[in-house]
């Protein structure tokens, strides 16, 4: 409660916000990609949609529980990634029909979580998964 965020940058449909009231590193991304075209916020795998605006305050409500099913997404650089349970995996290497994805925090936090999928652009079939994240 009482956290305020300031807009730091806008890239396409996504707006990046940073905490401005507490000495923390909290970040929020807002986007207009709900299936109804409304504004939404995604924080740690949870999605919140705009409920109502009251003066300078906006009230958001949770629209979904934390997603545990994998979704194809794009990184800020436009590269393929998979989002599952609030974690993001980036494409590491392709070996025949299998693709190895490593946790996006591998370099910055030394996380060795990974998953293997079959090469399919329409659905995600996980064949192997190490979900032991270090963060």
From TrEMBL:
It comes from Operophtera brumata (Winter moth). Residues 72-133 form the FLYWCH-type domain. GO terms for molecular function: zinc ion binding. Keywords: Metal-binding, Zinc, Zinc-finger. This is FLYWCH-type domain-containing protein. Pfam families: FLYWCH.
């Amino acid at each position: 409660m009482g956290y305020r965020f300031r807009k730091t940058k806008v890239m396409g449909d996504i707006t990046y916000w940073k905490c401005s009231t507490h000495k923390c590193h909290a970040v929020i991304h807002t986007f207009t990609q709900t299936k109804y075209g409304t504004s939404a916020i995604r924080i740690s795998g949870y999605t919140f949609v705009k409920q109502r605006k009251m003066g300078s305050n906006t009230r958001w409500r949770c629209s979904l529980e934390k997603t545990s099913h994998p979704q194809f997404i794009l990184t800020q650089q436009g590269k393929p990634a998979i989002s599952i349970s609030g974690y993001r995996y980036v494409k590491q290497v392709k070996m025949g029909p299998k693709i190895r994805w490593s946790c996006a925090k591998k370099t910055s936090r030394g996380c060795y979580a990974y998953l293997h999928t079959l090469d399919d652009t329409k659905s995600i079939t996980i064949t192997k998964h190490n979900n032991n994240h270090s963060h």
